[in-house]
UniProtKB/TrEMBL annotation:
Key word RNA-binding present: no
Organism for this UniProt entry: Citricoccus muralis
SUPFAM superfamilies in the cross-refs: Putative DNA-binding domain
Keyword annotations from UniProtKB, A to Z: DNA-binding
Segments forming domain HTH merR-type: 1-74
Name of the protein in question: MerR family transcriptional regulator
């Protein structure tokens, strides 16, 4: 297949995929298409499945390309890596409904009633989470998969007596982290081509993962110290 045919095959699952994005992934060593004598790229079904795998992990697990590449390099070398972050043990194949569920359940926008049904959240909790900007419905009144995750977390915290008003600091922290991301990617963001946007998105993922890892390390250290005191 040529790159246009690959994009057509990916369109249903990944409408934002572009030729520049695919070339960026090639530049990073995640995919290596064959070349004709004239130098044109030619893609196989296996290449397309590999692209689906990479794009799904980026979209649904927010994994940095380096993590995905290291995993794929190990698979390519005939090794059997134990898992990806989050415990996933997968190899490249078509993104089916089953794979979508395995990769953290990317979902369609959900109604308020569906969110409550899936999480057990009360109407009062939903109202409070919206008030403190921890979840935000779209223009149709529906919620994203990110809101679903936020509500699930809030329900668990509420069971421990931690109310939505106590969670405002997470909104403030997220806004500050986005400020760091925007500052770090400002130079790249001045370019408007698709390859530059892909680099901005990947850099943003790496920064956000580093921020989450740092936060987790600090909290884990504090808990360990409290346990030993």
């Amino acid at each position: 297949m040529n790159i246009g045919e690959v994009l057509a095959a990916l369109k249903a699952d990944f409408p934002q995929a572009s030729a520049s994005k695919i070339r960026f992934l090639e530049e990073k060593g995640l995919i290596t298409p064959q070349r004709t004598a004239a130098g044109y790229r030619k893609y196989t079904e296996a290449d397309t499945d590999r692209l689906r795998f990479i794009l799904a992990l980026q979209r649904d697990q927010y994994l940095p390309l380096k993590v995905i590449k290291d995993y794929l390099d190990a698979v390519d070398a005939g090794e059997h890596p134990e898992s990806l972050p989050g415990g996933l043990t997968l190899t490249p194949r078509s993104v089916s409904d089953q794979l979508a569920q395995e990769i953290a359940g990317h979902t369609r926008p959900l109604t308020r009633a569906e969110i409550q049904g899936l999480t057990g959240a009360s109407a009062q909790l939903m109202d409070s989470l919206e008030q403190f900007r921890l979840i935000e419905p779209d223009e149709t009144g529906r919620y994203s998969e990110y809101s679903l995750k936020a509500v699930r977390s809030a329900v668990i915290l509420a069971s421990h007596g931690i109310e939505a008003r106590h969670l405002r600091m997470f909104r403030v922290s997220a806004d500050r982290e986005m400020g760091l991301v925007e500052q770090a990617t400002a130079a790249m963001a001045t370019r408007r081509d698709a390859a530059a946007r892909a680099r901005v998105a990947e850099t943003a993922r790496e920064i956000s993962q580093a921020c989450l890892a740092l936060h987790g390390a600090l909290v884990s250290e504090a808990i360990a110290e409290a346990d030993n005191s």
